[in-house]
Amino acid sequence: MTQTTISAITIHCVDAPIDPPLRNSLNVIPRAPLVIADVTTSDGATGTAYVFPYTRAALGPTASLARSIGEGLIGRPLAPNSLWRELHDGFRILGSEGLVQIALSLLDMALWDALSRRAGLPLYAMLGAEARPMPIYASLRGWGPAMLAEEAGQAVARLGARAVKFKLGHPRLEDDLATVRAVRDVVGDDVAIFVDYNQALTLPEAERRGRALQALDVRWLEEPLPVQDDAGMAALAARLDIPIQGGENWWGPAGMQRALAAGACDFCMPDAMKIGGVTGWLRAAAMAAAHRIPMSSHIFVEVSAHLLQATPTAHYLEHLDVAAPLLRQPLQVRDGMALVPEAPGLGLDWDAAALRHFAVA
Fold first, then answer.
1. pLDDT tens across 77-124, in order?
2. Which one of 167, 274, 306, 319 is the catalytic residue?
3. Are 107 and 140 in contact (CB under 8 A)?
4. Global pTM?
5. Catalytic residue chosen out of the listed positions 88, 165, 274, 298
6. Would 360 be classed as within a structural domain?
7. Residue 165: which domain range?
């Protein structure tokens, strides 16, 4: 039987608005610079995927890396699992974190999309899983009590969300608590509240704020400390009743393995772009299962909806859809549940006019 090979990989960039912008204690993110990879195979199958390197400054370097790495894959078999191992081994001396990992993840996801489309299967089925509705939490974009309370109420009404997450990190603890109370007054007692500090606290301050937040029935405390501080996160997890969430900034399965070995979190939420695409995610899911840790996703709602189907300890899908303005059909949510697309592959169907409108060199 003739083996399917990779015949072309095209990389292009867009810079679309995020409306409303993402806000946290550190900055405002008003736009979504995305790098998109399109794969074509020797038998005419196609695949596509995207990554979100956060800043316009990283857009060109990420695209250049993905393009350069992709050139070396032309003529190779369409075998993302094998190529993942080979490429990561090839970058062992340079290191496969940062933009290198983002580029590798982009290519891995596009190859899996092509493989699934070629088979006529949605990605979850290609991974041997069956579809089931996945509970979401609405990841809010605002900042401060008034803005977040309004946004939380809209998420519950529009999406049927039974959980919401928002950013904290005001200079005064009292303002963080006021924000939680304002959201609680709007969503009621039946909606779970999660909070995220974006690595902004010291260990003593994280413990102080964590004790106050758990008294308000906050259900997880996300990234209170820098991602490198596994020991600090483990100490915090041991001292608090509120579960510690982490993982969106782990680089590859190795980063996750170190954190789990240290006991740095009670829940985990790898990011498809940083953990290593589909192949890296599957390794991460096996680790979470071995440690019996509930595993959620971080952004990238389209691929994450599929990947969570193949995750033994699947917990929540983060609903924060940065690519929606560029798609003909964004991920659908009904009654607080994400509905996994039945189309072959990831289900990404780009709006060609939107891509042209927001294209950048």
1. 999 999 999 999 999 999 999 999 999 999 999 999 999 999 999 999
2. 167
3. no
4. 0.96
5. 298
6. no
7. 125-350
